[in-house]
Amino acid sequence: MFVTSAVAVAAALSVSACGGAGGESADTRQVTVYTGRHYGIETVFDEFTAETGITVRFTTGSDPELRERLKAEGDNSPADLIITADAANIALSAEAGLLSPVSSPVLEEAIPAELRATDGTWFALSRRLRVVMYSTERVDAPPTTYAELGDPAWRGRLCLRPSTHPYTQSLVAGLINHLGPDGARQVVDSWVANDPLYINSDTDILKAVAAGDCDVALANSYYLARLLADDPAFPVALAWPDQSGTGAHLNVSAAAVTAAAANRDEAVALLEWLATSGQKSFSDANNEFPADPRVEPTAILSGFGTFVADLASVRELGRLNPAAVSLLSEAGYQ
Predict the structure, then answer these.
(1) Using CA atoms, how far apart are residues 171 and 161, in angstroms rounded to an integer?
(2) d(CA 219, CA 214)
């Protein structure tokens, strides 16, 4: 059941809707979205509705949950658009035949080629980097590469996200893309040898660094930006890894029109709006870097400085996901 955007539904998959103040009439255009990227999304959809008159109904859940839901619903799925918080998951949805290609000069102009599928099945909307985080109180020289986190100096001082999380899997898929399975396995083995503390929340990982439970960690850039927005003195900083090599691991929030879309025109309209007029609102809502490099990020993100990102791996993360999952398991990474 869908309800107005002012109401939150407490459930494993929360369902909401947003629209103009005048309410929905029988002939109102609408679009239904499944979204794994949920931070601040309601106000973004409200903005879209105010500008276009198209009502947005949306369901939130994890990327894998929503992908399995699309599979189970098949042609009867109410979803017109899917948004994921991970490039691998949108690519896996495309591989499963759940998406419908879009040919749009608007999208092709706004989104760099490296951040969209070659066949037009999906398009990135924002960028986040999974980078080294470190204590500003206890660490003077943080690791400058992902491999350096495996240095014995960090034994018992490292916090990581578990192997079951898509962010971990995509990071390792990126390592495989550049280092091959054997090279990536050496890096992951060295992390495991450092007896890391596994915490299934990037926010909690950063708080653990601040509290002294670990001194270095891996986390997404926007989590630190959020904490610094609340407390500019928060004692954690980021270091951009692999800047003289492949670049920092880049992942994206991405969107695609579903194969079952009953409201395809509206779905394309929302997708194009999120990539253009709504690009800053979408990225700023979660302190992510815009996918369109011409759009300015938040001041906090700009304060992190310039960096080299691994653009070469974004479109490979889905293909390499099974290999990454197997590698993590074989390495004993929890």
Answers:
(1) 11
(2) 13
What's the pLDDT score for residue 6?
27
Cα(316)–Cα(91) distance, integer angstroms: 8
Residue 122 CA to residue 94 CA, distance in Å, equals 8
pLDDT attached to residue 5: 31
pLDDT < 50 stretches in the chain: 1-26
Domains of the chain: 15-127+251-295 (3.40.190.10), 129-249+306-330 (3.40.190.10)
Contact 124, 252 (CB under 8 A): yes
Could you tell me if 112 and 309 are in contact, meaning their C-beta atoms sit under 8 angstroms apart?
A: no
In SS3 terms, 119-152 reads as CCCCEEEEEEEEEEEEECCCCCCCCCCCHHHHCH
Q: Say how many CA atoms lie within 13 Å of 316 toward its Cβ.
A: 18
Q: Using CA atoms, how far apart are residues 31 and 148, in angstroms rounded to an integer?
A: 46
CA-closest candidate to residue 237, choices 104, 111, 141: 141
Q: What length is written for the chain? A: 334
Contact yes or no for 254/124 (Cβ under 8 A):
yes
- pLDDT at residue number 27: 55
The pLDDT assigned to 50 comes to 98
pLDDT given at position 11: 32
Burial of 274 (0-12, 13-18, 19+ CB in 10 A): buried
Nearest to 177 by CA among 267, 111, 87, 108: 87
Give the type of residue at 7. V
φ/ψ of 133, rounded to 5, equals: -115, 145
pTM: 0.89
Tell me the two tokens of residue 37: 């990227």
- Identify the pLDDT of residue 28: 86
Query: Can you read off the two tokens belonging to residue 139?
Result: 């660490």
pLDDT of residue 115: 98
Helix axes 202-211, 221-230, angle to 10 degrees: 60
Find the distance separating the first CA and the last CA of the chain, reported in whole Å.
37
Question: Cα–Cα distance between 202 and 212 in angstroms, integer?
Answer: 15
